[in-house]
Design goal:
By secondary structure, the protein is mainly β. It is 9% helix and 42% strand. The strands form two sheets. Strands 1-2-3-10-5-8 form a six-stranded antiparallel sheet, with helices on one face. A six-stranded antiparallel sheet has the order 7-6-9-4-11-12. A hairpin with a 5-residue loop joins strand 6 and strand 7. Bound molecules: fe (ii) ion.
């Protein structure tokens, strides 16, 4: 008996293969003061995204909660969470469990950190008392990218290459 054939499927989504750190500075989307993200995959099917997060000059990524899994890999520099006592250094892998709330800070002596994050679901931004003050999901990330890329002259469809 012959083994079953595994045949190519019509209509699958195209792959993505890009230089993660872009040559064009405009590809970085401003997120907060001294914080940017570079979209790599904006996944509207499973609801999540992959990006590089870049922080310069001891920037802070505001306190937030993850309802779903996040994994990360530190490409450059280092950072820590105010809520934990470990430091993520260059080459570190990080797992953030669903339900985790934290505030990412980069130390004063680190001029730049870049970390790859794969984020499922959403990010829910909280104030000091735990009240929700912001929300991000793949659709709001796409909106942020589209607005920024129009502003910097890359055009309204530039972000589409990262959307699946
Ligand atoms: Fe986080």
């Amino acid at each position: 008996m012959n083994p079953p054939l595994v045949v190519p499927s019509p209509g699958i989504q195209p792959e993505i293969a890009v230089a993660a750190i872009p040559d064009d500075e405009r590809v970085w989307v401003p997120q907060a003061k001294d914080v940017w993200f570079r979209p790599l995959l904006l996944n509207t099917v499973t609801g999540g995204w992959c990006n590089l997060l870049r922080v310069r000059k001891s920037g802070v990524l505001h306190r937030h909660r993850h309802p779903m899994i996040v994994v990360g890999y530190v490409v450059r520099g280092q950072w820590r969470y105010l809520e934990h006592d470990w430091v993520a250094t260059e080459g570190s892998f990080v797992y953030e469990p669903p339900g985790e709330t934290h505030t990412l800070v980069v130390p004063d002596d680190c001029p730049e950190m870049i970390t790859f994050f794969s984020i499922a679901g959403a990010m829910i931004y909280l104030d000091a008392e735990g009240r929700q003050i912001g929300y991000e999901d793949v659709f709001s990330k796409i909106d942020m990218c589209r607005k920024h890329y129009v502003e910097v002259g890359l055009g309204t469809t530039y972000v589409d290459q990262f959307v699946r």
